[in-house]
């Protein structure tokens, strides 16, 4: 299993297995979980990250993303304030609406399901499950 983190507001990526070997044949991974890795990235690199995740997955493999969506506005402002405290006022942050994530993942060849996640704090969390087709 690979555990990685990006710079900035933090985040982690879990890939299992990467790659798996069975009878000497290298296979792509079957699961990737990405937690809060997208919004500290610049918008232009977010699609590249998703393309990389896709390349690591076998057909039918699952990408799970837990991140922030852009509504409600108060929740986004709360999240941005906390991210700014963590990364500074001049670091780029890039948030997307969960529908945008769905459209981007669909265009990359994923079947997508999304659910909003309630929280005691006003974080606008969303969990996205994307199966590689």
Which terms summarize this structure?
single chain; alpha+beta; 6-stranded mixed beta sheet; two-stranded antiparallel ribbon; 3 helices; disordered N terminus
Can you describe this structure?
The chain has a single domain, classed as 3-Layer(aba) Sandwich (Rossmann fold). 29% of the residues lie in helices and 37% in strands. It contains three helices and eight strands. A hairpin with a 2-residue loop joins strand 3 and strand 4. It is globular, with a radius of gyration of 15 Å.
Number of strands: 8
Which class do the helix and strand fractions yield?
alpha+beta
Q: What shape does the CA trace take? A: globular
CATH class (first level) name: Alpha Beta
- CATH homologous superfamily designation: Vaccinia Virus protein VP39
Distance between the termini: 23 Å
The oligomeric state is single chain
SSE succession: EEEEEHEHHEE
Poorly predicted runs = 1-10, 14-26
What's the tally of helices? 3
How much helix is in the residues?
25-40%
Domain module count: 1
CATH topology name: Rossmann fold
Strand portion: 35-45%
């Amino acid at each position: 299993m690979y555990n990685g983190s990006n710079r900035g507001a933090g985040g982690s990526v879990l890939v299992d297995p990467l790659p798996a070997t069975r009878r000497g044949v290298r296979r792509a991974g079957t699961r990737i979980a990405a937690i809060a890795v997208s919004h500290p990235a610049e918008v232009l690199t977010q699609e590249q990250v998703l393309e990389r995740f896709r390349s690591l997955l076998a057909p039918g493999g699952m990408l799970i993303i837990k991140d922030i969506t852009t509504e409600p506005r108060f929740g986004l402002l709360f999240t941005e304030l906390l991210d700014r405290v963590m990364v500074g006022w001049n670091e780029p942050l890039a948030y997307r609406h969960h529908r945008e994530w769905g459209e981007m993942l669909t265009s990359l060849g994923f079947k997508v399901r999304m659910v909003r996640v309630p929280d005691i704090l006003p974080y606008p969390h969303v969990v996205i499950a994307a199966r590689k087709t």
